[in-house]
Amino acid sequence: MSKNYLEPAGDNILVVDNLHTSTVIDGIEMPDNERQKDMLFGTVVFVGPDAKYTKPENVVCYGPYAGKLVAFEGVEFRALREGQIEFYLRKSN
Predict the structure, then answer these.
(1) Does residue 36 register a pLDDT over 60?
(2) Is the CB of residue 88 less than 8 Å from the CB of residue 59?
């Protein structure tokens, strides 16, 4: 039996958001949808053939409304264009 998978086209990439579901401010727990969203971090899963700088397993930072959410086989991905990435998380030597 063959397994289906998503393959990004062009410079698109698929990211899994590294989300927390709530934030505690002054002892009050606030769900993410009730607070102002800041930048998000995610782990790159797949990259399209035209992506120049992004590789699978990179941790990247992007705006909360960047890209489009895609649900596939029970997993939610964020489809981004490489240009929507604001920062790459790198380890210092």
Answers:
(1) no
(2) yes
DSSP string, 30-62: EEGGGS----EEEEEEEE-TT-SS--TT-EEEE
Whether residue 21 is predicted with pLDDT greater than 60 in this model: the reply is no
Contacts of residue 27, defined as CB under 8 A and 6 or more positions apart, other chains included, come to none
User: What DSSP state is assigned to residue 3?
Assistant: P
Note the pLDDT of residue 79.
96
| Integer angstrom CA distances of residue 67 from 18, 28, 30 | 15, 30, 24
Residue 22's closest CA among 37, 6, 9?
37
Q: Which residues contact 76 (CB under 8 A, 6 or more apart)?
A: 16, 17, 69, 70
> According to the model, what pLDDT value does residue 3 have?
84
DSSP 8-state assignment for residue 21: S
